[in-house]
Structure formats: structure tokens, C-alpha cells
Amino acid sequence: MSGREVCVCYFVEILRQGQPKISRHLAYLRKAGIVTARREGKWMHYSIRPPADAAHAAILSQVLSTLRSDKKMQADLSKLERACCAPQGLIVPAGAPSPAIMSTIKI
């Protein structure tokens, strides 16, 4: 999610997985307190939620930092950027909200 709030429809398109599977995994992350969700009409938006515990926050920060150098993660982030800013080649449902940058997240 890289410091932004992302609609589940983008995960479906970028990861090429079914919506139920993605929603289920996001629900696991939400239950673990790693992500937060917000509904806007029919759209669900997800963002990373830094843990309150400093040690847990440090671990999550390190994991996210490591993932930033992963080639597959970089490719997926590139797809998200194209979908957000120039959706050629990606099929995102009509009216889907663009991923919103969240300035308050510092992970």
C-alpha cells in the first residue's frame, strides 16, 4: 500500500487474484491490526496501520523496507502507479476511486 489507501479493486487487477481471496487476506491483516479498512459506498479502502507497540512497529517497518527492494513488489507497485495515474492496460471498474496518498503514515 506504500503510504496510501488502496481500493480492493486495484489489488484484484494488479495481483490477478479473485476478490474473495484478496478480501479474505486483507481481513486477516485487519484482524492482526496491520491494516485498517474504510468503506466508501461500495468500495473498501485499505491502508497500513502502524502498530502502537514500538517493537512491533519497528518489525513492520523493517519488513516493508525489505519488500521495497523485491523485484516482484516493485513491479506490482509500478502497476499500481500506472493504474492510479494512467490506467492504460489495467482494467479497473468504472468509478473506482484512485489510491489516495496518506501523508500521516510514516512507515
Task: Output the keywords.
single chain, 107 residues, alpha+beta, Arc Repressor Mutant, subunit A, four-stranded antiparallel sheet, 4 helices, disordered C terminus
Describe the structure in your own words.
Helix content is 48%, strand content 17%. The termini are close together. The model is unreliable at 86-91 and 102-107 (pLDDT under 50). Strands 2-3-1-4 form a four-stranded antiparallel beta sheet. The chain has helices at residues 8-15, 19-31, 54-68, 71-85, and strands spanning 4-7, 35-40, 43-48, 100-101. A hairpin with a 2-residue loop joins strand 2 (35-40) and strand 3. The longest helix has 15 residues, at 54-68. It is built from four helices and four strands, in the order βααββααβ.
CATH superfamily: Winged helix-like DNA-binding domain superfamily/Winged helix DNA-binding domain
Shape: globular
Number of strands: 4
Number of helices: 4
Strand content: 15-25%
- What series of H and E elements makes up the topology? EHHEEHHE
How is the largest sheet built, in terms of strand order? 2-3-1-4
Give the proportion of residues in helices.
Answer: 40-55%
Sheet/helix structural class: alpha+beta
Q: What is the CATH C-level name?
A: Mainly Alpha
Number of domains: 1
Cα-atom radius of gyration: 14 Å
- Report the CATH topology name: Arc Repressor Mutant, subunit A
What would CATH call the architecture? Orthogonal Bundle
The major sheet is characterized as: 4 strands, antiparallel
Q: Distance N terminus to C terminus? A: 11 Å
Contiguous low-pLDDT stretches (5 residues minimum) are 86-91, 102-107
